[in-house]
Amino acid sequence: MNRQTWKIGLWLSPAALGVLLATSVSAQEPQTASSMTIADNSVSALSDSLTSANSDASAPMAQVTSVSQLSDVKPTDWAFQALQSLVERYGCIVGYPDKTYRGNRAMSRYEFAAGLNACMDKIQELLAAATADLVKKEDLVTLQRLQEEFAAELATLRGRVDSLEARTATLEKQQFSTSTKLNGEVVMAVAGVAAGKKVDGFDVQKNAVFGDRVRLNFDTSFTGEDLLRTRIQASNLDPFSQTATGTPQGDLRFAAGNDSNSASIDALLYQFPLDEKTAVIVEANAGAADDFTNTVNPFLDGDGGTGAVSHFGTRNSIYYLLDGIGIGVRHQFNDKLELSAGYLASDANDPSPGKGLFNGAYGAIAQLTFTPNEKTTLGLTYIHSYNTDFTNANGSTGSTNASLSNLDLPFDSNAYGLEASYQFNPHIVLNGWVGYTAATVQKDQQGTANIWNWAVGLAFPDLFSRGSVGGLIVGMEPYVTSASHDLSFLEDKDSSLHIEGFYQWQLNDHIAVTPSVIWITSPNNNSDNSDLVIGTIRTTFTF
């Protein structure tokens, strides 16, 4: 047989398929559960990806017993004709249902040898099963001649199969878990205030700091369609509002609180499907709205690890009106319309008076997400919440006014949000939102405060290099525009702007470096305060 390649459409038996994989994949190391990466920390995104994978894996296959039925095969050599005869007689190779070889590529001698190996295994099974009378003598002679012709290729393939089986056995012994995947994210950052003097009497600190946030996610599935996520988190960086700036404006999203890197359980949730269109998410700890709601901020909402660096730039501030323990539901009416709803209580595990699942701070959300086409997404959000102080009532990490940071005023709030995203092309995405909150005092002084926030963002996927993202965000952090007479002291004097730019440079699949600059004009919505400029270099490792 000459050294030409063959164009043959074959789907091999399980044994031969292992050989073919061992040769066609360039000695690629198999992934263990601990090496797999979840590209998106959002549980909703993870659920969608699992559903897609399950549907792809269920494609039916049908068997074809004759090589001549495979339309791409061209019988031009004695070896092909010999193998054709063996396949038709013993049914040792199968093909695709449409009788074609998908991919339309040539078959090398190694791949032909893999097909030959499949027939050798089949005939050997017949001989071992005492059905030798079914095997013709001339077929054994033909098989011997083919074996001699492809002796070198068969030896190489069998050696690779032995190596693959040995590695598989080792992985089975050393695997972390048959039902759990480990993935993680490590954020390390150098950050500091580059400009600013005083904010409402607070002396701005300009010392550079180095901080981190570490997350380990244990994602477990018991049925293949559910998800139990257990997250261990550690951090050593406080928000700058507590240590450097005196205002929550410009706080970093990954600054999770200074626990001296003490590890603790953070997110703990279980997601399962009610039916094909409805999923339920039970939040046992540190639940957040984005666990079951689309925040409509693609490329910018990376929860501090990717995308926007700031707390404000990550998503509409009204989403921060609820967190804690509770339940969420996602229901897809069709491909274009989804309803998400949920209830989270901040002190659900505390039986003290004024706390607990229903008597303490809580938030309830309902959102319709409309995707009329692949480029456009719209979100309509309503949140009803009760918070025990104004710090949380305005949807920020702290009060808009530093003097109110410890104000103990229980507020009942109704918040409304509109979020939108439009992708002009693969490299330009426009995002934006507006949020309005009417917060009403429930005791002592009666009255209502009106709070607004808005933002416009641009994301530039694959900017300068594949996987990298550039981002620009301009907006107004929560701002008390007006209040009734008894609450007039809550009104902000001026409006400030949040201007943020970053470039997320994707070095490889696991490492990204993101320099960013945040500029806050009139901090704490007071033009008497000097502008703040906060610089950050964030490095994110994912695995």
- Broad structural category: alpha+beta
Shape: elongated
Read across the widest sheet, the strand sequence of neighbours is 1-4-5-7-8-11-12-13-14-15-16-17-18-19-20-21
Oligomer: single chain
The parts where pLDDT drops under 50 for at least 5 residues are: 1-42, 44-74, 96-106, 397-406
Helix residue percentage: 10-25%
Largest beta-sheet characterization: 16 strands, antiparallel, barrel
Q: How big is the Rg?
A: 31 Å
- Helix tally equals 10
**Straight-line N-to-C gap:** 48 Å
Binned strand content: 35-45%
Mean pLDDT across residues: 80
Let me know the number of strands: 21
What key attributes describe this structure?
543 residues, alpha+beta, 16-stranded antiparallel β-barrel, two-stranded antiparallel ribbon, 21% helix
Protein model, in words:
With 543 residues, this protein is an alpha+beta fold. 21% of the residues lie in helices and 37% in strands. It is built from 10 helices and 21 strands. The chain has helices at 14-24, 43-57, 78-90, 109-128, 137-149, 151-174, 240-243, 311-314, 356-359, 390-393, and strands at 180-195, 198-199, 202-203, 209-220, 227-237, 257-258, 264-273, 278-288, 301-302, 306-307, 323-332, 337-345, 362-373, 376-387, 411-425, 428-441, 448-461, 469-483, 498-506, 511-520, 532-542. The strands form 3 sheets. It has a 16-stranded antiparallel β-barrel. It has a two-stranded antiparallel sheet with strand order 2-3. Strands 9-10 form a two-stranded antiparallel sheet. A hairpin with a 7-residue loop joins strand 17 (448-461) and strand 18. Helix 3 (78-90) crosses helix 5 (137-149). The longest helix has 24 residues, at 151-174. 39% of the residues are buried. Residues 1-42, 44-74, 96-106 and 397-406 have low confidence and may be disordered.
